[in-house]
Amino acid sequence: MRGSNLRESFLRFFADKGHTIVPSSPLVPYNDPTLLFTNAGMVQFKDVFLGLDRRPYTRAATAQKCVRAGGKHNDLDTVGRTARHHTFFEMLGNFSFGDYFKKEAIEFAWEFLTRVLELPKERLWVTIFKDDEEAFELWQEIADLPPERIVRMGEKDNFWAMGDTGPCGPCSEIIYDRGPEYACASQTCALGVCDCDRWLEIWNLVFMQYNRDADGNLTPLPRPSIDTGMGLERMASILQGVDSNFETDLLWPLITAVEKITGRRYDRGEGGFPFRVIADHARSCTFIIADGVLPGNEGRSYVLRRILRRASRLGMALGLDGPFLYRLVPVVAEIMGEAYPEVVEKEEEIAKIIRQEEERFHSTLHEGMRVLNGILDRAAREGRKIITGQEAFILYDTYGFPLDLTEEIATERGLEVDREGFAQAMETQRERARAAREEGKAYEFAMALASALGETAQSLFTGYERLEEEAKV
Ligand code: ATP
Ligand code: MG
Ligand code: MG
Ligand code: MG
Predict the structure, then answer these.
(1) Where does a domain end: 191, 212, 239?
(2) What is its EC class (predicted)?
């Protein structure tokens, strides 16, 4: 089953169960400066769960574009090292706003997995929140799961909360066992549900049933709700009988395109790392730019710049000496264009932006590499194992080297970067910028008052500051 068929089949299944199909919201969340990128299907429904917004439907289903490359959910460093993590991925979700609850959510999920997708039941395990006896009973009744395949987990893994206060509740996750041949070395792995590629987490069902107040008290919600999320690429890997998301039809054409551009063969092991990261980053850069973000030095723009430059640098590791990432935009458009026409409509513009940023990077790169090599040589001469924060900051500030790039290169030479020192140098520079802004602010404030926009401007300003904090490296 192709990835696009899976997406359709999911939405059709839930439409048949009375769900309204709602389009994916953009990667830049409306109205929420605290969040860098949309990182789950529920983001566009946050206010509906909170009772602040009403919709003409009580059941919805979506295929949502997600990016997890900063803030609370950050998979940037995991990409390419596991078979299942991306910075950009699609989350399939069904939602109930005070309509059905736990029983139906479990019934729907089980029916979709075992009847529609025909996954073998004996491969499926579930996790539940440790005190959720109701879920424990329901899984046995509905799915006929033996109790030993229902694993109890603690608050960290199986109790979901939107924030410190507000709607929250236990969750239950469905895990696919790839089989003992995929087990990791950990002893507990053989016993069930581990963090490695054997136990593939495919679907999270969140049972929103409490409201948490400022003192931490939980009171039952009058209308409990459902929020679920299933990883499209992960499910596709199971259905297509491949070991990794990167070998599904959603990503494989990107890997082969990198093979063609570099003239090198992909290798499933460690050697394939740059291919996987480049394939992943080509998707996230394309989609982030399609939603209106440009590379830059703050917040979302900086996250984009980091992703893009990292791909660029890994291209160099594969022997490329110049822009190439932009050539993958048409491949992304080809794979994703039907479901997300925006990437086709803006294909040329996106490629141009990526190419310009690659060129900008390359033009400072040579100079920056020279400086970095000087720093590394000096450190070696002085017998240091550490690159100072100030040195890393100069590379960042003057030569556009993201911290992780400096770190990657330093690690190759057996050195570490003083991250704290780097953060301090960054903070000092921020202070300076802030002080400069203060001068202009008195005037701005008067203007804001005059146009009766005082409050809006103020909240925009704090939102912006928080965004900067989140993106801090
Ligand atoms: P994991 O533990 O594997 O990192 P998660 O618990 O962080 O996943 P959830 O927040 O529960 O993920 O998201 C719901 C679903 O979205 C997951 O069950 C998974 O199928 C998918 N998913 C989450 N993160 C990623 C990612 N980085 N790349 C691809 N799919 C993902
Ligand atoms: Mg995760
Ligand atoms: Mg998880
Ligand atoms: Mg999860």
Answers:
(1) 239
(2) ligase
